[in-house]
Amino acid sequence: MMRKTMIGALALALIAGLPVVAAGHKVPQPGYHVVHGWPMLPAGRALGAVAGVSVDRSGNVWVFHRASRTWSEPFPPTTIAEPTVAQFDGRTGRLLREWGAGQFVMPHGLTVDAGGNIWLTDVALQQVFKFTPEGKLLLTLGEPRVAGKDGGHFNRPTQVAVAADGTVLIADGYINTRIARFTPDGRFLGQWGTPGQGPGQFDHPHAIVIDRAGRVYVADRENDRVQVFDANGRFLEQWASPAIGRPYGVALIGTREVAIADGGVQPEHGPDRSGLVITDRHGRLIERVGRFGNQDGQFMMAHHIAADPSGAIYVVDITGRRVQKFVR
């Protein structure tokens, strides 16, 4: 009877086109796994608390970290002496360049736009910056260390997204709970969002990304959801589920999938979960990778996330002070 059952199962597998393996061997499962040994830092070097990550057109990975600085309030009066922006070869993990020494107080978001420009947010300086890849400052938005909620001020801005037409959207952020819109040269166009839990309201809009159709995806962190809007800020839908958890970061994979950094709920004595979540473009779960921990493929607090054209995903762990690469 057992032999007939095995033969029947083999026939069904062949009909279905499934892989056939010998008894005792596991069938390989599709999904993401961590790339061990990526990146490769020079001897004696380590990253600080890594807050932001993005990928440029060449597949190079940019990270924004806090070097020797840790979060403290009130924010420190001095800038970070060490470099805070690092570029890595996406394929090999080799460190290509660094800059940003003496320029930032509390780094947060990093976005590379279609032109290769680097957009950075500093929650202590209350400013948004646009740089060349070489570190030349091109544009500054906001008044240093002055909080506000108008076209010239922010209150702990978190991340930038740049639309295909050059419109700049800024998630602003920890206090203002709004999305602010600017022209490519920094002229204020307006804003949307108010504090709350309803559609179009926010509690810590922590990350933002725009797809090719102009839809805007916002990681509404403390509301445990991703909200989706059209290009004009009209609410379209929201995703919230135990599988998605608490979205700290959001990125687009190709044209069909979304990657979400679940930073986890942070109770008094530390996080109880964190992970990488893959969904379709309507928030339906495809895969969940990793769990809380400090081993390869695990996360202490997944903070932001990026994907390259090949589908590789890069997750920065702000508490674990590292960036990890995941591939299928």
Outline the secondary-structure elements:
Elements: H1 2-16, E1 33-34, E2 50-55, E3 61-65, E4 85-88, E5 95-99, E6 107-112, E7 118-122, E8 127-131, E9 137-141, E10 157-162, E11 168-172, E12 178-182, E13 188-192, E14 194-195, E15 201-202, E16 205-210, E17 216-220, E18 225-229, E19 235-239, E20 247-253, E21 257-262, E22 275-280, E23 285-289, E24 302-307, E25 313-317, E26 322-327
Parallel strand pairs: 14-15
Antiparallel strand pairs: 1-26, 2-3, 3-4, 4-5, 6-7, 7-8, 8-9, 10-11, 11-12, 12-13, 16-17, 17-18, 18-19, 20-21, 21-22, 22-23, 24-25, 25-26
Provide an overview of this structure.
The structure is a single chain. By secondary structure, the chain is mainly beta. It has a single domain, classed as Neuraminidase (6 Propeller). Helices cover 5% and strands 40% of the residues. The chain is built from one helix and 26 strands. It has a four-stranded antiparallel beta sheet, with no helix packed on it. A four-stranded antiparallel beta sheet has the order 2-3-4-5, with no helix packed on it. Strand 7 and strand 8 form a beta hairpin. The longest helix is centred in the N-terminal third of the chain and has 15 residues. It is globular. The protein starts with a helix and ends with a strand.
